[in-house]
Design goal:
- This protein has 467 residues and is an alpha+beta fold.
């Protein structure tokens, strides 16, 4: 549902198909409620995922942009009996793994042997490490005031069955404390793997789908005209004097937008104000000898950006709290659309460039519903124990498991208590769901890029274990 909401925001005319499979009855009813609230078309199977039903659905699809599996150990048998049709139809697999590190390794080896390219690989935790995650991150679930909860230093130092068995996993954006394992894999039949999308990317790579050979002959649809914020704010190409100035010039370093960034047409310098401008363009630029990211948040027709150095990708001060957690220096510049926080090392990291494509939007606050950054509305009691009589909904303790979720619940509670009528949902923090969301949104960006070449191509997504 997050994928469809994001896709509709970026390309409202793009058709879509969504399959949801969920065995838990309460979660199934919640899915129906969420889809109705957001007016999303869907196919829902309230039963365990089977090879027969998955094959039947796949046979009806022209392609599948991504499948997200979290089926509590059934992934091994399902992959075994559907490998051929997955390879024939699916561009990306996002798979939670269960059963311990050895089971995770077996799944990875199966995918590699079948030719899939592994994009992200985080092993399932050992039993001793899941006990540490339960204690220090989740506070033993129903004990929110447990003094061990949020002891990030203890969690970072925790070990499992050996000194080498660390209970956090290193990622390009710092450590994460996962429980289940996760594998994200791309299919070379549909993806140009030489482009090499990864979680370490600092520039956007959203044009890596292999489209039919006739697609290159398709004409692109004309883009909508750009309307600038003010009638007197029309930006003109820099004069030759400005262009020649060695101290104030603009150059494109890396492009993050679909549309081409062209000097004098979609970006340029404004020496009089010490800034630069962009229209229908996003990226990293060299402006007045400084590296500047300009064009965020997406969704606005134009931006002016000061030519000063932004915050570095990761900032940590040498000073420590009593529990030895590093903090960014006081007064460090922070843009929530460009930077994110990792709670475990209390360090700011630059968002993956996929996240920078999420428009910054304002939504009205509804008492009964959380709203996510993609515009998806979910009934608050499904994710937030504090809106469900301090009880978990369904069969998992989601409120205690993922920092981004519990933080969103607390923010919603604060908005209601403060009488705030509008909200601008924040992008996720770095936690064990962050990289999965990057993979989901990247699959949507791929589909949008392909849709612009082939207007009849739909976004097709499936979620097995859809809570």
């Amino acid at each position: 549902s997050r994928a469809i909401a994001f896709g509709r925001t970026l390309a409202p005319s793009m058709d879509y198909s969504l399959l949801l499979v969920e065995v838990n009855r309460a979660n199934c009813n919640a899915l129906r409620d969420t889809m109705a609230k957001n007016a999303i078309r869907y196919t829902l199977e309230c039963s365990a995922a089977t090879a027969e039903s998955l094959r039947a659905w796949l046979d009806e699809q022209p392609h599948v942009d991504a499948m997200d599996w979290d089926i509590q150990g059934a992934e091994h048998q399902l992959l075994e009996h559907t490998s051929d049709v997955l390879e024939a139809k699916v561009a990306r697999l996002i798979m939670g793994t269960h059963g311990g590190p050895r089971a995770h390794a077996a799944m990875r080896n199966k995918l590699v042997a079948r030719g899939w390219r592994i994009v992200y690989d985080v092993a399932h935790q050992s039993r001793m490490c899941t006990a540490h995650v339960s204690r220090y991150l989740r506070g033993y679930y129903a004990q929110p005031d447990n003094p061990d909860r949020f002891n990030w230093t203890a969690l970072l130092r925790a070990r499992g069955e050996s000194a080498e068995d660390r209970c956090t996993r290193d990622t390009p954006r710092g450590p994460v404390a996962n429980w289940d394992g996760e594998l994200i894999a791309d299919n070379p039949r549909f993806v140009n793997v030489s482009i090499g999308f990864s979680m370490s990317d600092m520039t956007l790579k959203a044009h890596d789908l292999l489209l039919p050979s006739h697609a290159k002959h398709e004409r692109r649809r004309p883009s909508a005209a750009i309307v600038l914020p003010r009638s007197n704010a029309v930006h003109r190409a820099p004069t030759s004097a400005h262009m020649a100035s060695p101290n104030f010039r603009c150059e494109l370093v890396s492009q993050a937008s679909y549309a081409t960034c062209e000097l004098g047409r979609s970006f340029g310098c404004d020496p009089a104000s010490g800034s630069m401008w962009v229209t229908k363009c996003r990226g990293t630029f060299l402006c007045a000898s400084h590296t500047v990211r300009c064009g965020w948040p997406p969704g606005l027709p134009a931006h002016n950006c000061s030519c000063v150095s932004p915050v570095t990708a990761a900032v940590a001060a040498p000073e420590f709290l009593p529990n030895s957690t590093p903090l960014p220096p006081e007064g460090t510049p922070f843009d929530p659309m460009l930077h994110t926080l990792n709670l475990l090392d209390n360090t700011m990291y630059e968002h993956h460039p996929v996240m920078s494509q999420v428009p910054s939007l304002i939504f009205p606050v509804e008492r009964e519903y959380l709203v996510e950054w993609n515009g998806l509305r979910v009934r608050a009691r499904y994710d937030c124990d504090i809106f469900n009589g301090d009880r978990h909904f369904g069969n998992h303790f989601y409120f205690y498991e993922v920092p981004t979720r519990w933080y969103a619940c607390r923010q919603h509670d604060a908005a209601l208590r403060s009488g705030i009528g509008f909200t601008a949902p924040a992008l996720p923090m770095v936690d064990d769901e962050y990289h999965e969301q990057v993979a989901v949104y990247h699959a949507v960006l791929r589909a949008v890029a392909a849709h612009r070449v082939l207007p009849k191509r739909p976004l097709v997504f499936a979620e097995l274990g859809a809570r």
